[in-house]
């Protein structure tokens, strides 16, 4: 008997966009019943290749076979019919609708009568089978990102997908959630499904995948069997050079005397605030951030980190307590107040808050700077200065874009993040609130961002860094505060911190050693 | 076999050009069938319609006269829409502008011997301010109390229209007007000059220049000024605008000053350039047509000018066939409606397409 034909065979795929060749004769073969990782730097062409497979883009050249059959995929509907389903880098759920409604959205199957009861029961059954717990009657806006992702996966399963594509599924997940997802994926391949997943986290590639394909600048550079490779090897294939996994903070020394004399730039006193659902999200939080310091905030997502960032930046009202920015009261002031005091903000939700997808790269880069005298005069925008400014940021921060007049939404996920960072670092003063600044970045870019943060700190900035990545927090922060259910469980100096101790506090336990 | 409606992957320029052309052709075909059914020769009717809109110097001038208020009102609508302020109230703002225009020469500065050009300037100013104030009502309600502007702007239209009717049939009615409803004429005091004789532009008045300048200014405003940038950011992503510290409340007020003011100027053109008095026929729905024009022009200020002329042509040409072809006015409306229906409806095919899927073989 012959071996099964590969689930997916893409040959010589070419996809050009104005100014870039996103996929340059890429081949990809994925065996049925395997987990296949797709790896590559930001802008390497991973999402594009998968969008071709999912019917969102038409390739300029190349052929595709599914289970050995040559096919033409002209629309997402065609892809669905072939059993291909994709969870995108930016979710595509309808916020004001329920989980069940989202899952059946666009399906032609129940043609006449919608029996929500049965559909909900079917969803519950799928949930239970794959450990994708979610309430089918809940509204999307009530769900955490992790839950929303489960909805996306359920949506594909409900449609009978047997080839599942996940574009950076773990970028938005907590480490625990990522592990759960890994187990779910394993379970799915055991049932004979095939999975392609994109990630920047090499640990995950090593832990979950059977095979790896590496893309670099639109071309395939390697096809590897996971068991026969190593993180170091993968990183080298991806970037084309040796990479450092963890940066050394001592490369960015700060003199202790300077630091000792400084007064805190950000003071938060007994702060409380409500979540979107109107429930208490912050319950009496206090801390200070000094110049020349990075204060890391650790914690499982949904414990008030997002609300904290929003209250400090003026986007969400405080219901109690006080905020001082640069020793001035900034409680419940409009966002402009904090911006004028030099506070920059990397928000969690970049597509909805931090960036304007339908405007140009240049328009996005000046969002915090257009009021300054250099870029506008007498109410007019100074075109030349703006062009110079944005070209400088594009160059300095290595944003891969055909030009400054390109629509922002055509940038790759990682390059969107670079644009945001470039703007916030370039326009801010001495204060920064950074929420997951390295989410979705490749290892090279992650290292680069961490270095930028340390550079800013060395120049005297006070940085509040909110992250779920403990390794990142330990690598760059001076002190780490752990949040749990809207409270600070404790603040520890990063050098003395133990991962276990922080882990306990993240779970709401105050370690004995420190007493109450 | 199954027919599905699906999003085009990458909408092409060719499609964007072809779709409107095909839409118009289809509209003409359908309109033609209806005309045949009504016993008229479609080809001849269409020719009469075109001639009535653009065929003769007289037709062209009438079309332009009709286009002037449409241009100004559509500019008003499009700048507000650019910021996602859904100003459905251009009609009311136009009417308030018209009232203010007539009020200045007839009552405020009557018999003061003020030179005509000064008077005209003051009338224009009054019209702008009146429209702006009328626009500021819903803007303040939205900015400070978060009242939905669609409802308030819409309702204020009727308030303005009724006020206009009340004024020219009641307190402002001309005592020497032989009982006809309408104010006295101020034509002798101040009339908006027509375009120079050598242009052979008939009744086309300086309102056209105002509209062209306004379009150019708005275009510059949006692309080249700080405030225009803020409007664009707010329209494209209000969340990001808030995040960037843009003062939304202030901008809603400002944008409605401009929007209401422009609509007010549309009323100014109608009264100071055409009617020279308040009477029936000032509020003919230009403020509503403006919404369609703004959308068709994709809210682009220069596009608005072009679409307004086409729309005006559709209207004057339509009127013409009732005269030359002896068709009932309703028939002209049907043809106009068919054209609009296909052009507006066709737009969706720029982004979507119909596809036939053969589901033979495997399922
Ligand atoms: N719709 C589009 N229009 C124009 N250019 C595009 C479009 N989509 C992607 N590109 C370009 O193609 C290249 C590859 O993008 P792609 O999104 O595939 O990268 P990626 O490997 O997924 O990166 P990331 O890890 O940052 O998500 C980038 O240079 C991007 O700017
Ligand atoms: Mg991507």
Please outline the helices and strands:
The complex is a heterodimer of chains A (about 525) and B (about 375).
Chain A: E1 8-17, E2 20-30, E3 35-40, H1 46-53, E4 61-66, E5 69-71, H2 76-81, E6 84-87, H3 99-104, H4 116-130, H5 145-158, E7 163-167, H6 175-190, E8 194-198, H7 202-208, E9 211-216, E10 219-225, H8 231-239, H9 256-261, E11 266-274, E12 280-289, E13 293-298, H10 305-312, E14 320-325, E15 328-329, H11 335-340, E16 343-346, H12 350-354, H13 361-365, E17 376-377, E18 380-381, H14 383-396, H15 413-427, E19 431-435, H16 443-458, E20 462-466, H17 470-476, E21 479-484, E22 487-493, H18 499-506
Parallel strand pairs in A: 3-8, 3-9, 6-7, 7-8, 13-20, 13-21, 16-19, 19-20
Antiparallel strand pairs in A: 1-2, 1-4, 4-5, 9-10, 11-12, 11-14, 14-15, 17-18, 21-22
Helix pairs in contact in A: 15-16
Chain B: E1 2-7, H1 13-37, H2 42-55, H3 57-82, H4 90-108, H5 116-145, H6 149-169, H7 207-224, H8 226-236, H9 238-243, H10 248-275, H11 286-296, H12 301-324, H13 329-346, H14 348-351, E2 352-357
Antiparallel strand pairs in B: 1-2
Helix pairs in contact in B: 1-2, 1-13, 2-3, 2-12, 3-7, 3-10, 3-11, 3-12, 4-5, 4-6, 4-10, 4-11, 5-6, 5-10, 7-8, 7-10, 7-12, 11-12, 12-13
The structure holds adenosine-5'-triphosphate and magnesium ion (MG).
Please, could you describe this protein's structure?
The complex is a heterodimer of chains A (516) and B (363). Chain A has three domains: 8-239, P-loop containing nucleotide triphosphate hydrolases (Rossmann fold), CATH 3.40.50.300; 246-342 and 430-516, 3-Layer(aba) Sandwich (Rossmann fold), CATH 3.40.50.300; 354-428, no CATH class. Helix content of chain A is 33%, strand content 25%. Chain A has helices at residues 46-53, 76-81, 99-104, 116-130, 145-158, 175-190, 202-208, 231-239, 256-261, 305-312, 335-340, 350-354, 361-365, 383-396, 413-427, 443-458, 470-476, 499-506, and strands at residues 8-17, 20-30, 35-40, 61-66, 69-71, 84-87, 163-167, 194-198, 211-216, 219-225, 266-274, 280-289, 293-298, 320-325, 328-329, 343-346, 376-377, 380-381, 431-435, 462-466, 479-484, 487-493. The relative contact order of chain A is 0.11. The mean pLDDT of chain A is 88. Chain B is mainly α and 363 residues long. Chain B has 14 helices and two strands. Chain B has helices at 13-37, 42-55, 57-82, 90-108, 116-145, 149-169, 207-224, 226-236, 238-243, 248-275, 286-296, 301-324, 329-346, 348-351; strands at 2-7, 352-357. Chain B has a two-stranded antiparallel ribbon. The longest helix of chain B has 30 residues, at 116-145. Chain B is globular. The mean pLDDT of chain B is 90. The interface between A and B is medium-sized, with 39 and 25 residues. The complex binds adenosine-5'-triphosphate and magnesium ion (MG). Residues 46-47, 89, 167, 412-413 of chain A line the site of magnesium ion (MG).
């Amino acid at each position: 008997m012959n071996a099964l034909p590969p689930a997916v065979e893409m040959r010589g795929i070419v996809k050009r966009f104005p100014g870039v060749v996103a996929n340059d004769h890429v081949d990809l073969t994925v065996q049925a019943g395997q987990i296949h990782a797709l790896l590559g730097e930001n802008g390497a062409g991973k999402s594009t290749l998968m969008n071709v497979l999912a019917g969102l883009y038409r390739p300029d050249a190349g052929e595709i076979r599914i289970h050995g059959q040559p096919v033409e995929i002209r629309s997402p509907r065609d892809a669905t019919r072939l059993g291909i389903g994709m969870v995108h880098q930016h979710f595509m759920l309808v916020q004001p609708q329920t989980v069940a409604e989202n899952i059946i959205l666009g399906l032609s199957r129940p043609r006449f009568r919608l029996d929500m009861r049965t559909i909900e029961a079917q969803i519950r059954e799928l949930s239970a089978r794959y450990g994708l717990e979610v309430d089918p009657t809940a509204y999307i806006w009530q769900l955490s990102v992790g839950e929303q992702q489960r909805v996306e996966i359920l949506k594909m399963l409900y449609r009978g997908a047997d080839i599942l594509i996940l574009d950076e599924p773990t970028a938005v997940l907590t480490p625990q959630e990522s592990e759960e997802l890994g187990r779910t994926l394993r379970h799915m391949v055991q049932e004979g499904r095939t999975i392609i997943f994109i990630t920047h986290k090499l640990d995950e590639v090593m832990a979950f995948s059977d095979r790896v394909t590496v893309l670099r600048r639109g071309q395939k550079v390697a096809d590897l069997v996971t068991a026969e490779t190593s993180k170091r090897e993968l990183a080298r294939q991806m970037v084309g050079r040796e990479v450092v996994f963890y940066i050394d903070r001592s490369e960015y020394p700060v003199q202790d005397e300077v630091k000792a004399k400084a007064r805190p730039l950000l003071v938060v006193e007994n702060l409380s605030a409500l979540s979107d659902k109107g429930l208490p999200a912050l319950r009496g939080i206090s801390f200070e951030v000094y110049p020349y310091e990075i204060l890391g905030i650790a914690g499982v997502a949904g414990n008030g980190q997002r609300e904290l960032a929003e209250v400090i930046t003026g986007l969400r009202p405080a219901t109690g307590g006080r905020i001082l920015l640069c020793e001035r009261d900034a409680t419940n002031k409009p966002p402009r107040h904090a911006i004028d005091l030099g506070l920059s903000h990397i928000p969690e939700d970049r597509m909805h808050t931090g960036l304007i997808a339908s405007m140009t790269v240049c328009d996005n880069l000046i969002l915090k700077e257009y009021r300054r005298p250099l870029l506008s005069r007498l109410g007019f925008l100074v075109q030349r200065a703006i062009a110079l400014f944005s070209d400088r940021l594009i160059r300095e921060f290595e944003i891969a874009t055909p030009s400054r007049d390109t629509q922002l939404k055509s940038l790759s996920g990682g390059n969107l993040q670079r644009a945001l960072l470039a703007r916030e670092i370039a326009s801010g003063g001495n204060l920064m609130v950074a929420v997951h600044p390295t989410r979705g970045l490749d290892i090279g870019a992650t290292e680069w961002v961490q270095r930028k943060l340390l550079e800013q700190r060395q120049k005297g900035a006070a940085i509040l860094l909110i992250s779920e990545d403990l390794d990142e927090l330990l690598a760059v922060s001076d002190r780490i505060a752990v949040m749990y259910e809207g409270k600070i469980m404790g603040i520890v100096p990063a050098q003395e911190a133990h991962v276990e101790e922080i882990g306990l506090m993240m779970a709401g336990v105050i370690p004995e050693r420190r007493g109450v | 076999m199954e027919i599905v409606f699906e999003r085009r992957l990458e909408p092409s320029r060719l499609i964007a050009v072809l779709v409107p052309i095909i839409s118009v052709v289809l509209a003409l075909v359908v309109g033609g069938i209806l005309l045949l059914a009504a016993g008229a020769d479609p080809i001849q009717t269409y020719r009469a319609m075109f001639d009535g809109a653009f065929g003769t110097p007289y037709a062209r001038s009438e079309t332009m006269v009709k286009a002037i208020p449409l241009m100004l009102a559509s500019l008003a609508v499009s700048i507000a829409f650019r910021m996602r302020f859904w100003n459905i109230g251009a009609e009311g703002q136009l009417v308030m502008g018209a009232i203010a225009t007539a009020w200045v020469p007839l009552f405020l500065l009557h018999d003061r011997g003020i030179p005509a050009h000064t008077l005209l300037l003051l009338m224009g100013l009054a019209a702008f301010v009146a429209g702006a104030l009328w626009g500021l009502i819903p803007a303040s309600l939205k900015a400070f109390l978060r009242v939905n502007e669609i409802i308030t702007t819409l309702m204020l239209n009727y308030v303005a229209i009724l006020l206009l009717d009340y004024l020219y049939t009641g307190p402002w009615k001309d005592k020497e007007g032989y009982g006809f409803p309408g104010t006295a004429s101020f034509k002798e005091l101040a009339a908006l000059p027509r375009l120079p004789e050598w242009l052979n532009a008939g009744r086309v008045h300086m309102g056209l220049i105002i509209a062209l300048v306004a379009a150019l200014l708005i275009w510059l405003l949006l692309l080249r000024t700080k405030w225009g940038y803020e409007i664009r950011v707010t329209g494209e992503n209000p969340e990001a605008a808030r995040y960037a510290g843009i003062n939304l409340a202030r901008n809603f007020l400002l944008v409605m000053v401009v929007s209401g003011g422009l609509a007010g100027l549309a009323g100014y053109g109608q009264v100071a350039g055409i009617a020279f008095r308040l009477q029936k026929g000032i509020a003919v729905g230009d403020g509503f047509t403006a919404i369609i024009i703004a959308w068709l022009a994709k809210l682009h200020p220069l596009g608005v000018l072009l679409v307004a002329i086409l729309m005006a042509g559709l209207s004057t040409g339509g009127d013409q066939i009732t005269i030359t072809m002896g068709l009932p006015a309703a028939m002209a409306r049907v043809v106009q409606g068919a054209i609009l229906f296909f052009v507006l409806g066709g737009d969706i095919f720029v982004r979507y397409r119909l596809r036939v899927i053969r589901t033979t073989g495997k399922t």
